Amino acid sequence: MKIKLDRTICDGFGKCAEHAPAVFSLDEWGYASYAAGVSAYDDLPPDAEQPARRALLDCPAHAIIERPARPPGARPRR
Ligand code: SF4
Question: Within a domain: residue 50?
Fold first, then answer.
């Protein structure tokens, strides 16, 4: 599972870091960013998927989306 956080629509509710602190952290104003070692381009560790999905479903601003899996054989985009 890959996730994308759109910081331009994050409203700073903090739900994501509450549900998935290993995936999201909050800045001093309460806006979300990726936690250390997490990026939009890499698969989340398996144990982080369920908390991330919970954060995705509970984000009031819909600022978190699940990125579609890459088709087999496709080159990675960076
Ligand atoms: S739950 Fe959504 S709106 Fe709230 S801090 Fe996280 S990404 Fe931003």
Answer: yes
Count up the domains in the chain and report the number: 1
Q: Say what the pTM is.
A: 0.86
Q: In Å, how far from its chain's centre is CA 56?
A: 7
Assess if residue 45 is contained within a domain. Answer: yes
Please determine, for residue 76, whether its predicted confidence score (pLDDT) is greater than 70: no
| Residue ID of nearest Cα to ligand 1 atom 6 | 16
List, as one string, the DSSP characters of the chain.
Answer: -EEEE-TTT-----HHHHH-TTTEEE-TTS-EEEPTT--TTSPPPHHHHHHHHHHHHH-TT--EEEEPPPPTTPPPP-
> Which residue out of 59, 65, 66 has the highest number of ligand 1 atoms within 8 Å of its CB and is therefore the one to mutate?
59
What is the C-alpha to C-alpha distance for residues 78 and 71, in angstroms, rounded to an integer? 15
